[in-house]
Amino acid sequence: MKTGSKPRTALNVDRVISAEIPDKNKHPCLHELVGKNLESFIDVPFDVIRISIAEDIDYDQMLSQGEILYETLHEEQKECCDLVLAAVDGLGIVCSAWTGIASCLLPFGRTTASLFKLNISEECKSSLIKLNSSQARILDVLILDECSMIPKHALQTNDEVLREVTWVNKPFGGKIVILGGDFRQVLPVVRRGSKPNQIDICLKNCEIWNHFQVCHLKSNMRVMSGDKDWIDFLLRVGNGTANDIDEQINLDAECMRQNDIVSKVFGLKLQSDIDLSEKAILAPKNVDVDRMNEKVLQRMEGNGKVL
Predict the structure, then answer these.
(1) Which of 50, 130, 158, 296 is the most exposed place for a label (fewest CB within 10 A)?
(2) 8-state DSSP, 230
(3) What is the model's pTM?
């Protein structure tokens, strides 16, 4: 675009707002455009249809499905389910999860950071939510999944936000908060943190944790094959009793791979028509993932393309 000209297309607009801020003296017209929205120079479409979430829910179908699933619960699960249903009957509920993948599995789910507008750059110690938020006042029940990954700062911020928005000086502004998770799984991620750092930032070390009523589910529903040795091993790993003096887990020899694990899983050459949906290597660090991904890509036939 030339100096002094005005953008006429969406492409030109994108080029303007994607560039660095122009100098006010050298390019006054471009400098004036920065900060304006698209309505300043592009007509906004009026045929936008907004669908209410409430109209998108078949409550009869959900009730029927819930009754079917309820009959599949064992005694521990039914005890917890009855306790929750008695507390939330007839109230407005919002579901969220700490991770994006988990939130996609929930009906109209959102990440906890998105729901409370947590400031990620400040380690979730503050929120950008408006104090006049009507949504926060209307909702009565908040269900937070994958709670073992939620840092204590985030839960404390949620508590402070709901107290301020509702003007009710009670835990979470008097809202019912239901946490679900397994503390044998992944704890909050602390960059370059040690084991004590991860434990310190854990949800159980939050001051408001003492206000929760804890329900325990002790049956391992994911391992029902009857392999007692495997079940006991998973419990030892989760409890930390499988660790040696160096905090390392001692695996059986059959679980170890001395040679290249990429060759073991993917082979020496990958053809373009091969199905990779059932092949995967899990690693705790991104640097290891990037290194193994590079090895896998080198085994694929054809020329690579950078998009």
Answers:
(1) 50
(2) H
(3) 0.67
